[in-house]
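Bench notes, afternoon.
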Amino acid sequence: MREFAVIYEQGEHNWGAIVPDLPGCVSIGDTLEQVQVNVKEAIELYLEELQERGEPVPESKHRIGSVVVAA
């Protein structure tokens, strides 16, 4: 099992997701729940492609966090 950071962004009409440790691995969905399912599939396909090419899976170097500040 591998874990990858995913950044979700709400757009005007849908949600987007990018996986910083897997260049070019992105997905979209109409809802947050849909994009979460879609990006999981995109990651799985990305890793399958790497395996078929005999390339190593990149190490996960990104972490996602939040910071609360007074505004």
